[in-house]
Design a protein that fits this description.
With 146 residues, the protein is of the alpha+beta class. It has a single domain, classed as Pnp Oxidase, Chain A. Strands 1, 2, 3, 4, 5, 6, 7, 8 and 9 form a nine-stranded antiparallel β-sheet that branches. Strand 1 and strand 2 form a beta hairpin. It is globular.
């Protein structure tokens, strides 16, 4: 699943606007300190959406056939973090490109993602059947082939 997230720098996040309608925005995920994170510019609409309603869904991005390796999706709720020390730990494990810029917590929003569902959709080894591999807390992992 992580390979699908790592295949593209930019992912797509769905948040909920004030009126309940969906908003799609771009994000870059950081897998660090045992959690999943993303940062956003100060006062970005997606950040305000998550402050109001922490639910989100993220899609990994997708390649065109025949190079398609699968799509990964995760969803759950987010928690905004306000400590510079936490941001420093997260950025220490980020990609070299992300570490190039100085990151100050007062100039951005940092969100830790609580994952309630993780799904990977791809093809079996023979590329003849669709595989749906999912994980949920408390239920664990399941795999469906069709």
């Amino acid at each position: 699943m992580k390979a699908s997230f790592d295949a593209h720098v930019h992912k797509t996040i769905a948040t909920l606007r004030r009126d309940g309608s969906p908003r799609i925005s771009g994000v870059e995920l950081i897998f660090a300190a045992g959690d999943t994170w993303f940062g956003s510019m100060r006062d970005a609409l997606k950040a305000h959406d998550l402050q109001r309603d922490p639910r989100y869904a993220i899609h990994s991005g997708s390649d065109d056939p025949p190079d398609w390796i699968g799509d990964a999706k995760l969803s759950g709720s987010s928690e905004e973090v306000f400590e510079q020390s936490v941001l420093d730990v997260v950025m220490a494990e980020a990609s070299p490109e992300a570490r190039e810029a100085e990151h100050r917590i007062e100039a951005m929003h940092l969100f830790r993602l609580e994952i309630a569902e993780l799904v990977w959709v791809g093809l079996n080894d023979s590329r003849e059947k669709l595989i749906i591999d999912s994980w949920h807390p408390g239920r664990g992992r399941s795999r469906l082939e069709r």
